[in-house]
Amino acid sequence: MKLKVGVFGTGHLGKFHLNNWKEIPDAELIGFYDPDDKIAKEVEHLYKLKRFSTPEALIEKVDAADIVAPTNHHFALCELAIRKGKHVFVEKPLANTLEEGRKLIAMIREANVKVQVGHVERFNPAFIAAKNFTLNPMFIEVHRLAQFNPRGTEVSVILDLMIHDLDIILSIVKSDVKHISASGVGVLTDTPDIANVRIEFNNGCVANLTASRISMKKMRKMRLFQKDAYVGIDFLEKKTEIIKMKEDSDKDSFSFDIDTPKGEKKTIAIANPKIQDANAIKEELIAFVNAVKNNKPVAVSEIDGYLAMEVAHKILAKIENTGIAGA
Q: Rounded to 5 degrees, what angle do the CA atoms 138, 140, 141 make?
């Protein structure tokens, strides 16, 4: 039996979701809710899809809610769906505030429903290729730069862009956060548009992150440095590079010898894993459907979403305390 899905919010990203839902065999798109009449008429015309007049009306007809509305509406829509025993896919961040996030977690446990948070970079083929290599980084450098777009500016660059990388880092660094240093400035909005953050973990790992939504060029790169290895992930170009000490199994790697400071000879292997072409949004929606239908854990849980939010809000508090968050 197909999973009946309703989409809540059909703006820029919501339309991507609509396109992908139509291509997932195990899902049936029932309709959508959007309070904007202009957007709704466009969606009705393009997708031949029923518009529901209220969120409540759509919730009654579906098994699962796909919430792609602005962040400040996440809590109310998630609460409505969860209270009705519906499964939820909600775009990142999970909620607008940590209090809302905690309330959602409690509701989810009580209702025993599946909730997946849309941290789409988990499904980026470049990251998936990197995960096939054992990741145990001790230093991480991240640059996520974007050109200015008014869409998404209801939240800071931390919750808009950097949260992608916070989620990735928390998923691979198996340690608690020890200390955060941060600075940021609002240039075109009232919240930080560019920020630089240093996160220290209890296991000694350090992550330096820069996020900007006022850059001239786009960049989404993460560099991981660990014992005897370097892993570079380009989320934008979907490329992965691994440089490490050569092992007998590295048959497909380019290699060369170097002399170490101790006078030892080491063989370095450079590999560019084959990247499988994939639509990350479609893959995360398929993963959600499979988790619901097979009663399996979701790929990115509400706890994962909350932990990324928690670090993001600690960063925002640090920036606010520096007194330079506003332009």
A: 155
Q: Which residue has the tokens 């009232």?
A: 190
Domain at 122-277+311-322: CATH architecture: 2-Layer Sandwich (3.30)
- Global pTM reads 0.90
Report the C-alpha gap between 75 and 67 in whole angstroms.
Answer: 10
Residue 267 CA to residue 318 CA, distance in Å, equals 43
The SS3 of residue 73 is: helix
Strand partners, 234: 221, 239
Pick the CATH number of 3-113 from 1.10.10.10, 3.40.50.720, 3.40.50.280, 3.90.1490.10: 3.40.50.720
Phi, then psi, of 51 in degrees rounded to 5: -95, 130
How confident is the model over 302-327, as pLDDT tens digits?
A: 999 999 999 999 999 999 887 544 43
Torsion of CA 251, 233, 70, 217, to 10 degrees: -140
